[in-house]
Known about the structure:
By secondary structure, the protein is of the alpha+beta class. The protein folds into two domains: 1-48, no CATH class; 49-101, CBS-domain. The protein has three helices and six strands, in the order αββββαββα. Strands 1-2-3 form a three-stranded antiparallel β-sheet, with helices on one face. Helix 2 (58-68) packs across helix 3 (87-94). The protein starts with a helix and ends in a 7-residue tail after the last helix.
Amino acid sequence: MADVRAAALGSGHLHILVLCNDAKPLVVHLRDTLLEPDARPAHELARDVLVLDAQTPVYEALTQMRKSSVQCAVVMKDGHMRGVVTLADILERVLPVTTSR
């Protein structure tokens, strides 16, 4: 848990990805670690993360994330992780902020 807390502190993110060998990525929310001992392995509290194919259209990704009630998803291509997308990333793309004059 100490590693998850350190990663959250260093990045400013509340959801921390846990990568175990070649297994599917998992996610740990910082709040779930607060009462846990430092030595407890993160994968014991980790949850499944939504996985999106790299070819998933933005609107479909938004739909899947809302249905799953998640804030972030892992983007995979050919079985390899290519990145992470957040709900904020998608909303920024779908609903761009315009400046008024």
